[in-house]
From TrEMBL:
<dbReference type="InterPro" id="IPR029063">
    <property type="entry name" value="SAM-dependent_MTases_sf"/>
</dbReference>
<dbReference type="Pfam" id="PF08241">
    <property type="entry name" value="Methyltransf_11"/>
</dbReference>
<dbReference type="InterPro" id="IPR013216">
    <property type="entry name" value="Methyltransf_11"/>
</dbReference>
<protein>
    <recommendedName>
        <fullName>Methyltransferase type 11 domain-containing protein</fullName>
    </recommendedName>
</protein>
<feature type="domain" description="Methyltransferase type 11">
    <location>
        <begin position="16"/>
        <end position="129"/>
    </location>
</feature>
<dbReference type="GO" id="GO:0008757">
    <property type="term" value="F:S-adenosylmethionine-dependent methyltransferase activity"/>
</dbReference>
């Protein structure tokens, strides 16, 4: 919820969130912080994510209007209005100076060119409005992504992050991100770093959700027989329990860089 607070989204009349994904944070914002009479426009480039977003939002008692092309929504004092469109963060389908607030949670680092997204954020914001971004931080402090690599290397196996994941760490320099944001036109920019636990009910859920899939793909790539795969997975599971199990004070967390900019 950092971005909603830092951008003053709860006080804004027209909010834009790009790369909204499954909309878990959006649910909480809509229910608890979004003011009556406000309009909340969401985008994602994935049609699958849009469907999941709509389904998740409906649990809160609100429905998201799907728009093929952007059509201005008129406010009503006693209603919260939410819409979602398919859109690319680097080429948004909105007019200039359309929004009071812009939010991008963990999407700036996965676009083709983050400079384009920063320029688009600046373009669609009204003067004096705020934009908020988060990206993954320093890879060495993102235990969610480094654990499997460390465990496999401990047992004599080489492992490298999937290139699409590794690319996501290419802009994890707070100083450079601030320079890039100011270069896009923003007059004020602050950056800070936070560490967050991975959103799972318990360590075992994280192991099965975040680690097992990557391990299975690695085992298939290496063409392990069943016995080798089972033996190695048991070793990885023991390493995980040692580092993050119920008797360990550590948690599988990851570092985020937060960027708050004013137009």
């Amino acid at each position: 919820m950092i971005l909603y607070h830092q951008t003053l989204a709860d006080k804004c009349n027209k909010i834009l969130e790009v790369g909204v994904g499954t909309g878990r944070s959006s649910q909480m914002f809509t229910q608890s912080f979004m003011k009556q009479g406000a309009i909340y426009i969401n985008t994602d480039i994935s049609e699958k994510m849009i469907e999941i977003f709509k389904k998740n939002l409906s649990v809160t008692g609100y429905d998201a209007e799907y728009q093929d092309t952007y059509t201005e929504i008129l406010p009503e004092d006693d209603k919260k209005k939410i819409a979602i469109l398919k859109a690319n963060n680097e080429e948004l389908p909105f007019p200039d100076e359309e929004f009071d607030c812009y939010i991008s949670n963990l999407s700036l680092h996965i676009v083709n060119n983050h400079h384009n997204q920063l320029l688009e954020a600046y373009r669609v914001l009204k003067p004096e409005s705020k934009a908020g971004f988060t990206v993954w931080g320093d890879r060495s402090r993102c235990r969610c992504f480094t654990f499997l690599e460390e465990s496999l290397k401990k047992h004599g196996y080489d492992y490298s992050l999937d290139p699409s994941i590794a690319k996501s760490f290419e802009i994890s320099d707070p100083v450079q991100l601030r320079k890039d944001t100011l270069a896009a036109g923003f007059k004020i920019c602050k950056t800070f770093v936070v560490n967050l636990p991975f959103a799972s009910k318990n360590p075992e859920d994280f192991l099965n959700f975040m680690v097992k899939g990557s391990f299975d793909m690695y085992a298939e790539e290496k063409d392990f027989d069943d016995a080798t795969k089972e033996d190695l997975w048991n070793k990885v599971s023991i390493d995980f329990d040692t580092q993050f199990g119920p008797d360990s004070p550590e948690i599988p967390d990851f570092e985020q860089i937060v960027i708050i900019a004013t137009k």
